[in-house]
Amino acid sequence: MTLAALATHYGFAASSVKNIWTRPNERAERAIADFIGQPVENVSADRYPITRNRILKAEYASSRGKPSSAQRKETA
């Protein structure tokens, strides 16, 4: 199947897939992944990186990355 036919089959414009390899297009990427029976993360792995949960120290929990006032009092 061509990309244009795939787009038509999934109900969006054929022109939307013409730059799929150079520009991200989530809808087209999901259609391709569905068609070949793979998760989109496997098909476009460079566009869907594996996220890793991070544990931060309490002193970096604020949005500015500075210790809270309670933590500063403890260290003073």
Write a concise keyword list for the protein shown above.
38% helix; single chain; 76 residues; mainly alpha; 434 Repressor (Amino-terminal Domain); 4 helices
Q: What does the model show?
A:
The chain has 76 residues and is mainly α. It is 38% helix and 0% strand. It has four helices and no strands. The N and C termini lie far apart (69 Å). The mean pLDDT is 75.
Helix content: 25-40%
Number of helices: 4
Distance between the termini: 69 Å
Strand residue percentage: under 5%
Poorly predicted parts: none
Which secondary-structure class do the elements indicate?
mainly alpha
CATH architecture label name: Orthogonal Bundle
Instruction: Specify the CATH class.
Output: Mainly Alpha
CA-based shape: elongated
What series of H and E elements makes up the topology?
Answer: HHHH
The CATH topology is given as: 434 Repressor (Amino-terminal Domain)
The count of DSSP E runs of length 2 or more, i.e. the number of strands, is 0
